[in-house]
Amino acid sequence: MATHLITKLNVSTSKDEEEILGANGYQLINSDLNEGTGKNRIFIWYKKECGLKPVTRIQFSFNDSMKSGLADAGYELVDKDLNAGAGGDRIFMWYFYGSTESDIPIVNLEVTKDAKEEPALLKDGWERLGCDLNRRVGGKFIYLWVKREKPSYICEITATVDFTADKQKFDLGFTRVDEDTNRGAGGNFVFLWYRRSTDKSKALTALNASTDFQENVRLQNEDFKKLSVNLNSGTEGNDVYVWYLYEGCESQIKNMVLLINSEAWTVYQKAGINFVDKNLNEGNKGWKMYLAYQ
């Protein structure tokens, strides 16, 4: 097996840990996740080892309920809080060695701290993981990105309104977008999920969202299929649904992102990335957020 595949992940929250990981063959992503907080320097590290199984999926948890499905599905926990010392949510990284069709080895990692950096990575085939690593700290929106060994496409999306099916979804090869689409709105924890394939013919070709009855009818008439889960479950807001398309001459979807950073909304549109101009928290007091895809 080639040595360009990532086989282990780790996190340092102190100078001693940095030296220990460095001495043990780990490579550093040189981007302090606590930059600007005046607190502990926090870095993500990775290792590439010959002949070992490659990491194929990475997830984050920002509350205890998110952990059990990951643990039950056999994900490895890196037991270091990525917000250590800075307040905010306690965020943990998990990684997995998978063998489903959706498990494409990860060859590289990158961290962004500015919305302006994101479109170029997306266009270059990088996949942005959904959790803001500064969640509830304030300051910059920080994301981890992965580059995979082969080009792959999103072949299925789904959504959940509780944590009961998490293990089953992980077992099937799904990646959870680790941001609550009901954030700030009360109601259920609602998450979007996607599954990847290297088979271009299975790829979704367009995404959309509806926030009222007229939009439902229009999307149905355009042959879009609707996810059965209301993304506003448990809130007072409009019924919000995500829709997807399999056919059509649009290009195949390689990545989708949930944009909660208001700066990103304009940046993505100016970069020509498909932007679904429907607030997923329409009608409630939750965070405004939009889907984009490439």
Automatic annotation (TrEMBL):
InterPro entries noted in UniProt: MABP
Boundaries of every MABP domain copy: 1-50, 52-198
Superkingdom as given in the UniProt entry: Eukaryota
Transmembrane segments: none
Recorded GO CC terms: cytoplasm
Name of the protein in question: MABP domain-containing protein
